[in-house]
Amino acid sequence: MSDRIARLEARIREDLEIAHLEIEDESHLHAGHAGAKGGAGHYRALIVSPGFEGLSRVARQRLVFRAVGEMMGPDVHALALRTLTPAEWSSA
Predict the structure, then answer these.
(1) Coil, helix or strand for 72?
(2) What pLDDT shows up at residue 37?
(3) What CA–CA distance (Å, rounded) separates 23 from 76?
(4) pTM for the full model?
(5) How far apart are CA 62 and CA 58, in angstroms?
(6) CA neighbours within 13 Å on the CB side: how many for 30?
(7) Given Cys at both, which of 3, 65, 78, 90 links 42, Cβ 3.0 to 4.6 Å?
(8) What local confidence, expressed as pLDDT, does residue 74 receive?
(9) R_g (Cα) of the chain, nearest Å
């Protein structure tokens, strides 16, 4: 696991109650992309949290981006999110 992924995981776990968390580094798929030139990475995350219950997809993503905070930009250029409640995850 890369240092950046470990830091992303730590930040998300600090702010949200997590039932399941997977983060994949997809930076290699974006080589040469303008956002990758500065070294910031592209990531995809699956986040399962009971804290998402009753929230819209946008509200769930806002919670995650608030948790990630200042890592967006210098460390993370793009973060694709799949945010689910435990019930949604078990039926997926």
Answers:
(1) strand
(2) 57
(3) 12
(4) 0.86
(5) 6
(6) 19
(7) 78
(8) 80
(9) 13
| Digit-coded pLDDT (tens) for 36-70 | 555 578 899 999 999 999 999 999 999 999 999 98
What whole-number distance in Å separates Cα of residue 53 and Cα of residue 34?
Answer: 36
- Give the list of residues 6+ apart from residue 68 with CB closer than 8 angstroms, or none: 8, 11, 12, 76, 79
Strands of 1-92, DSSP E: 20-25, 41-48, 76-84
Q: Which two tokens stand for residue 51?
A: 């804290």
- Are the beta carbons of 82 and 47 closer than 8 angstroms? yes
**Tokens 């950046």 — which residue?**
4
- Angstrom distances, CA of residue 14 to CA of 21, 27, 36, 64: 13, 24, 27, 11
> Domains of the chain (ranges plus CATH)?
3-91 (3.30.300.90)
pLDDT digits 0-9 by tens, 69-85? 988 888 888 899 999 99
> Which among 46, 40, 39 is positioned nearest to 24, based on CA atoms?
46
